Amino acid sequence: MLAMIIKEFRELRRDKRTLAMLIALPILLLVVFGFAANFTIKTLNTAVLGPGAPLARQLLTMRPQAAEHLKIVVADASGDEGDARGLLRDGEADVAVVTGGEKPLVFINGANLFAAQSAKIVVAGLGEVVTSEILFNPELKTSWVMVPALVGLILTFIGMLITSIGLVKERQSGTLEQLAVLPFKPADVIAGKIAPYLLLASVDMVAVTLLARWIFNVPFAGNPFLFALGALIFLFVVLGLGVFVSTISETVGQAIQTAMFFLMPQILLSGFIFPLAAMPAGVRWIGYGLPLTYFAKISQGIILRGAGLAALWIPFVVLTAMALLIFSAAVLRFRRTITPARSPGTPVPKLAEEFQS
Amino acid sequence: MTSSSPDGPWGLSACCVRFGTTHGTVAALEEISLAVPRGQVTAVVGGDGAGKTTLLRTLAGRIVPAAGEVRVPPPRRIGFLPSASGVWNDLTVDENVEFVGRAYALGRSRLAARRLDLLGRAELLGAAGRLASRLSGGMRRKLGFCLALLHEPDLVILDEPTTGVDPVSRVELWRMIAETASSGSAVVLSTTYLDEAERAASVLVLDDGHTLYSGEPQSIAAAVPGTIVHTPVRPPGGAGESAWRRGREFRAWYADATAGEVLDEPDLEDAVIALTLARSSEGDAGRRDRAGGAAR
Amino acid sequence: MNGRRPIVEVDGAVKRFGRLTAVDGVSLTVHTGEIVGLLGANGAGKTTLIKTILGIEALHGGRVNVFGTAPSRATRQRLGYVPQGLGLYVQLSVKQNIDFVAGAFGVRTPTSIPEDIATHAHHQVKDVGLGLQRRLAFFCALLHRPELLVLDEPTSGVDPLARARLWDTIHAQAEAGAGVLVSTHSMQEAEQCDVLVLMSSGRNVASGTQADVIAGTTAVEVRSPVWSMAFEALSAARLPVTLAGRAVRVAGVDRARIAAILSAASVTADLREVPATLEEKMVLVHRRTATG
């Protein structure tokens, strides 16, 4: 039996990916649950609008409880209800106070669940002095907040995990060699391999969104074409990651392990389970490096709040940049596996016309 | 450099292939020349690591040699069967045929005719709807062979088509290989089975990237230096190192003429073993004489 | 055969998988000092039979005795098995593999390791050539001095010299008294066995020495300047045709019929009756069982 134990340890020592999982996973979970897993939002971005704005601002900054939690980001005496709704829709504020009516009106961003919970408490503390309304997600349903981000998660799974498995299977079975010799251009092979997953992911995404509407009555407040565009860009990011994983894996098992490396942090740190605002700065920066974070913003913004491109342009730009970078790098790597291998130091030969594809 | 010659002659001239590894550059093929004429079967023989796969992949265009010339027909006229199974396991036999047919843009009627002809000769028509993973090893290999021939290539390259295949399927594969050659294509294959290599019109024996012998299998005996003797028992002592068993008796190789019953007609196996022994003893004794690089 | 005791006795073994009878009444014996070669196409039942001898599968009928008793952990302790995949841990080093097997069988790691294996002691098995891997697998299988060796395709893929050396080891074991059961697809390996057992569709269709197995089967050798036409004509008639150099061979078909086919195709050729090869015998057997 001892021989068995020694052998297992020795094998484990050589298996870099499993080792990495052994070490990295506890660290990740520790970081996440130690620092990131925080549902209490300390400060809420607040807007005060309307003629009474300067007064309201004074009052709020004076009240200790309010001052601690409300961070005034906009103070506009000429603003009105429409502006308030717009600010919340665009994600610039989580709480908006509109003065000038009978009672001050407080709008709370229901799409930001934990912010809304905190806001409710604060507002309750203000008492009968104000009327409040929760926008976008009046009943503060968790499902409504989760589902938009879930779409992103599904896209990530299919784009990364399933794509990388599909591509690695070809290498594992040895048929990649033959593909290279068949009269396919490398572009054909790559496009042909990725297209089914692109299609599947898109179909899945539509299905989940529809199901969400049907089962959970999640609204679709914004522009579906904008959403589709965002989803497409995001798909290229995760497909690129999937292709990349397949180029560094020899077997399906390795592909799954590696894909999980990229997946786990995104699930936990992209802000759709644990709010980004609640994380300490150091951990939050990790979140800002992950693609899913940006898609979650787009997805929640459009589906729940009806936000437009003007408000969401930053996530769109970041995702587009990621897509261009990651997808092209991955495709180039993959291309190398199906083009002829060159001996080191060989000058590039001039090929006859027939060979140029 | 690779040049496309649609009509032949095809082959390799003085090709060198090197791979960069963590230990520096490794010479996988050293000055290898091989002619692959039409209407014939050419065999490449050698053990694991001898360079057979590297050579075939160079012919197929998967590797660009560091030096030397590769003359092959245009890629569409080449058929290739890699040493791994060469079939898509999650597809049925027919789906495999259809995929490759589409890849080569074969018209529907031509594909149907080729399918009937090839699968018929391979005796796979009865299993046309079966998943490739459910076929026996020999049947899978035959399917791979059919796929490589689907587009009627002029040059057919097969990497160890019969290794690990049961004898009955092996005979059937050989029948198909011989039929392909006799119909005018050039066939080059690699094998570790010397009884098969003996059937080829010409054979190239590789050892560690070098040529041990190149020519007709029947003439290899003349290329063996020293003598091969056969004895009923293993020669004692040091000479035992150069002895090997065949059936009930032993054969031994000596670098020079020696007393003993000389073997009249060493077959390919005896000759290759003797050449391998000769090369390693030359290596031990005469490294300083390597500069000449005498071809065998 | 003086002093030879049977180590493995298989008597009418039957093994089914659902509706498929993989082994259908097979009998064979392996004696001490004897090398028995098991031949047959895929699906003939060789692997299943071996598994029953190893004790990994149980029989539905008949009897298997290894060292006089039914296969058990105790019998496995006395046999050495080298599977087709070698059973080595490719991520570990050569020495680590040896340590593991020694530990598993409860023997000491030997102090004297063959030179070629020792030079690679700390290399990972996957970085070592196939020839050396096979030698290592053998070495490990022999560590506990087994009295029975069961080998599945022991020299597939290695060059002739390496193959000869591996077979030297096998013969040495047999000479020292071990019994050896080899499953193979290679005619050259079959040559090296004392006794051959030919299986087809789960049955033992022929056994004995190579001469016994081939006995009575002849082939016709066809020599013709237009060998390819002769080949095509005979092949088109669905006969078992093989090539030997430039000569075309047809096994198990009488000369007259061949002559008729050739003359119908206007091919002139010399015909000669020769003994069949083992390979041709196997093809004929397969055809008979396939149609019968």
List the helices and strands and how they pair.
The complex is a heterotrimer of chains A (357), B (296) and C (292).
Chain A: H1 2-14, H2 16-36, E1 44-49, H3 53-62, H4 64-69, E2 70-76, H5 81-89, E3 95-98, E4 105-109, H6 113-126, E5 131-135, H7 142-172, H8 176-181, H9 186-216, H10 224-247, H11 252-269, H12 281-288, H13 291-305, H14 309-338, E6 341-342
Parallel strand pairs in A: 1-2, 1-3, 4-5
Antiparallel strand pairs in A: 3-4
Helix pairs in contact in A: 2-11, 7-9, 7-10, 7-11, 7-13, 9-10, 10-11, 10-13, 10-14, 13-14
Chain B: E1 2-4, E2 11-21, E3 24-35, E4 41-45, H1 52-60, E5 63-64, E6 67-72, E7 78-81, H2 93-103, H3 108-121, H4 137-149, E8 155-158, H5 167-182, E9 186-191, H6 194-197, E10 202-207, E11 210-215, H7 220-223, E12 227-231, E13 243-246, E14 249-254, H8 268-285
Helix pairs in contact in B: 4-5
Chain C: E1 6-17, E2 20-31, E3 35-40, H1 46-54, E4 61-66, H2 73-77, E5 79-82, H3 94-105, H4 115-119, H5 130-142, E6 148-152, H6 160-175, E7 179-183, H7 187-191, E8 195-200, E9 203-208, H8 210-214, E10 218-223, H9 227-236, E11 241-244, E12 247-251, H10 255-264, E13 270-275, H11 278-291
How would you characterize the overall build of this protein?
The complex is a heterotrimer of chains A (357), B (296) and C (292). Chain A folds into two domains: 92 residues, 3-Layer(aba) Sandwich (D-Maltodextrin-Binding Protein, domain 2); 197 residues, no CATH class. Chain A has 14 helices and six strands. Chain A has a five-stranded mixed β-sheet with strand order 2-1-3-4-5, with helices on both faces. In chain A, a hairpin with a 6-residue loop joins β3 and β4. Chain A starts with a helix and ends in a 15-residue tail after the last strand. The C terminus of chain A is likely disordered. Chain B is α/β, with parallel strands linked by helices and 296 residues long. Chain B folds into two domains: 169 residues, Rossmann fold (3-Layer(aba) Sandwich); 69 residues, no CATH class. In chain B, a hairpin with a 2-residue loop joins β10 and β11. Chain C is of the alpha/beta class and 292 residues long. In chain C, α3 runs parallel beside α5 and α5 runs parallel beside α6. Chain C is globular, with a radius of gyration of 22 Å. Chain C contains eleven helices and 13 strands. The model of chain C has no long low-confidence stretch (mean pLDDT 88). In chain C, α6 links the parallel β6 and β7. In chain C, the strands form three sheets. In chain C, strands 5-6-7-3-8-9 form a six-stranded mixed β-sheet, sandwiched between helices. Chain C has a four-stranded antiparallel β-sheet with strand order 11-12-10-13. Classes of the chains: A alpha/beta (357), B alpha/beta (296), C alpha/beta (292). β6 of chain A pairs parallel with β5 of chain B, so a sheet runs across the interface.
